[in-house]
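hey can u run this one w/ pyridoxal-5'-phosphate bound, need the structure tokens asap thx
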Amino acid sequence: MPDAVFERLTELEPIARQLEPSPEDRAVLAGRVVDYANSFLDRLRDLPAFVATAGPIAGIPAASIGETPLGIDEALQLLARHVDEPGLNPASHGHLGYIPGGGLFHAALGDYLADVTNRYAGVSFASPGAVRLEHLLVEWMASVAGYPADAAGTLTSGGSLANLVGIVTARDKHGVTGGEVERAVVYLTGHAHHSVDKALRIAGLGGCVVRRVPMDARYRMDAAALDALASADASAGLLPWLVVASAGSTDAGAIDPLDAVADIAERYGLWLHVDGAYGAFFALCDEARPRLAGMARSDSLVMDPHKGLFLPYGSGAVLVKDRRAMLDAHHYSASYMQDAAAPGVEPSPADLSPELSRPFRGLRMWLPLALLGLAPFRAALEEKLLLARYFHERIQRVPGFDVGPEPDLSVVMFRYRPARGDADAFNAALVRAIHADGRVFLSSSRIGGHFVLRLAVLSFRTHRDTIDLALEVLRDTVARLEAS
Ligand SMILES: *Cc1c(COP(=O)(O)O)cnc(C)c1O
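ok here u go:
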């Protein structure tokens, strides 16, 4: 080896070693980051739920990435100003829009440990302990959902990827390929989450016949209509193969009649995929469990720990009853499969989803469950159900407000009937004014052709005082708009 190489190595090594901070640097960096996080959490109660911005923002300057490094204080200042201030604050108790996510502190500590140890949870051989832990969580979720203990499953980045894994498994199990796609029929309601349509398209099933099954007055799938559609399609020589039902729809929080849908799925040999990204974890509380009856009869089920278990974003899950079908659809090498599917050998997460290298997601989920126990999760979920009912009841007492159906879970739809003028325009102005106010964040949707407001309760930080605040903001804002 020429001397020049040794010389170059001597130059490079001390620079490359800067990637590993010294114990002293580590203490400073971790101290500053923990201080930042603590200050955020200490102020969180009083931070706005939403900070409106006029158009796109400049954000963190591009010059922050260059040959000269920033100090930690400067980096945190940039973060505070350009990232943590503008827009929606999903950690806020006042986040009552879309489907709120979580952000449990214990989960953040799990991420910290998973990132520092960098355990590779993709393949059993590499980290049997990490993979076992993820499967333990899958087994626990199966028990929550009423699935058999030997169901397969995996932790994903979220519900969208989980829906894709379920649909790809169903596709391969039913052999829906090539020319058959155009005769293959999928059943779902107009309130199925758009990630299901996206998954169908990504899975090469965009050409399937899609039947939008009518809904009843409570935005639940009309099972009799599903039966009639499947029957007509089968008689016409089409191939009904998949029904996607919601255990908590995003728009209305409605639970489709899962038992009746399961009966029909059995009758026509359909794969039943239940999207419980939002609602499935409500099975943890006695109050909601009966309403989710039938969920356990599905072939595949999506549940999002970053929704119903209050984890930070980045945690979805999918369970599949037919273990073999899930492996067949996702394993990446036939010879490897042999071991993975052999009795007694744990299948690797990499054989159960599109991912290979993936974060050790199990730790962020296990640590909060282990450190807190299940009681606070059950209590928080039941609290959310009751808060939604409380809001539904109270908003009706404010003159001018009309409400949607009594919530199945924790979403309430409502709108204001103005004294004069166009109701849709008024409600659009109302939601804009609430965003400008920022104390709470609500979102809107279009249902049955009408502009409606939604209140979705799922942040673990939302308690009764937040719902009272939302009622106050609505009352005041309407009065102001009516006066102007
Ligand atoms: C949130 C949601 C999804 C999508 O999940 P992500 O985790 O956002 O990818 C799918 N279905 C339902 C019902 C949802 O509420």
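The chain has two domains: 110-372, 375-483. anyway lmk if its weird
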